[in-house]
Write a structure and sequence with these properties.
Layout (H helix, E strand, L loop, with lengths): L2 H27 L6 H25 L2 H17 L2 H19 L2
Helix pairs in contact: 3-4
């Protein structure tokens, strides 16, 4: 088997596993009663995962990474629009990297 075929199969396998994991979670949650405690857990889980992903970038990242995080956080705080926050983060990274050559 050629290397290209093997790589393609691995990528397809990873995609299938990711899809199965996401669908499996949805299917399993159909059988879990939605108590107030579970609802709170699900509401705050995404933000805790986001913080866990972004904290190292804020700590170890360069000026562009920090500008991205700050601008996205500010736009999200004031607009409550995730798409606008992402756009602001990308724009901040672009500006810092372009003008400061970081």
């Amino acid at each position: 088997m050629s290397e290209q075929v093997l790589v393609t199969l691995v990528i397809l396998g990873m995609g299938a596993i990711t899809f199965a994991t996401r669908i499996g979670g949805v299917v399993m949650m159909r059988f879990v009663p939605l108590t107030p405690a579970i609802e709170r857990f699900l509401r705050y889980l995404s933000s805790s995962v986001l913080v866990a992903v972004l904290a190292p970038a804020a700590y170890d990242g360069d000026l562009a990474a920090r500008a991205t995080l700050v601008s996205a956080a500010l736009v999200m705080y004031f607009t409550r629009n995730a798409l606008a926050a992402m756009a602001a983060g990308v724009a901040a990274a672009m500006v810092v990297r372009h003008f400061l050559a970081v």
